[in-house]
Design goal:
The complex is a heterodimer of chains A (151) and B (177). With 151 residues, chain A is an all-alpha fold. Chain A contains 7 helices and no strands. In chain A, helix 3 crosses helix 5 and helix 6 runs antiparallel to helix 7. Chain B is built from 6 helices and no strands. The chains are: A mainly alpha (151), B mainly alpha (177). Chains A and B meet through helix 4, helix 5 and helix 6 of A and helix 3, helix 4 and helix 5 of B.
Amino acid sequence: MKDSNSRKQGAASPCAACKLLRRRCAEDCVFAPYFPAEEPHKFASVHKVFGASNVNKMLQDLPEHQREDAVSSLVYEANARVRDPVYGCVGAISSLQQQIDALQTQLALAQAEAVHMRMRHYSSSAECASPSTRGRRSHNHHPKSSESFWH
Amino acid sequence: MASSSSYNSPCAACKFLRRKCMPGCIFAPYFPPEEPQKFANVHKIFGASNVSKLLNDLLPHQRDDAVNSLAYEAEARVRDPVYGCVGAISFLQRQVDRLQKELDAANADLIRFACAGAIPPSPAPHAAVVGTPRQRGGGGGGGGGFYQTPHSNYTFPYNYHCPWNGGYNPHGGGGDM
């Protein structure tokens, strides 16, 4: 009893990973800093999708300062895959790409319309300013100016 | 001697795992022997056992897409062990935000043009926003009805540093999902 107590790590309870894996949480447990006991679901989804062994290898291959971000992204991917077993977070990429296409189209149209409005306004302002053009029908210029703009 | 699979050679998965490729091999339809890297990546990131469980839980017509998305994620993770394809999501989300802001500004400009009937000298890189074709047809509601975009169902909580300057595509082509 005393030996097992002395062998126990400083943490009060095993991390979520070691709890799920039902193993002793060593002091240098690679999972412990990133999978606290209070967040069991975090490791559960990562384990389900990637497997503890793979996650262990991935974290071991990274320098310590990168591991937190790596775990965050793995958790994100794992949760996405649990929610959507077919597409996972690739579904999000597809959706975002479609959004970007739609936004770019709308923005291009908006900007084109604005230029068109600006052209119309300038041409009507120019006609008002010049009395010599009063004799001409002002609307005759609009189709020409718009045609030259659009073509 | 008899090959247990319908192919002359075992599938990429069974080749990698050095096992007999049986007729009902779950991997065989999706990991042909000509694409060994595909299974190698998937095995490295997800593990054969997890992939097998996942595929068994899906309907047959869903498995092709599932394997493609797993292969995409695995390749992204091999290329970027820290962020994987989540880095791409972050990058794309920022693009969406930027474009949305530009569109909002353009819409605001158009509203100003429409209301004032005058065009201020706008030095802004974004031109005034268009009234939507829908608005022209129906007359819209007061000042609204300009271009709107569908809201994303994905909220991305992280702010990752993105190594990409342009679009992200580990396969070098368009998104084929």
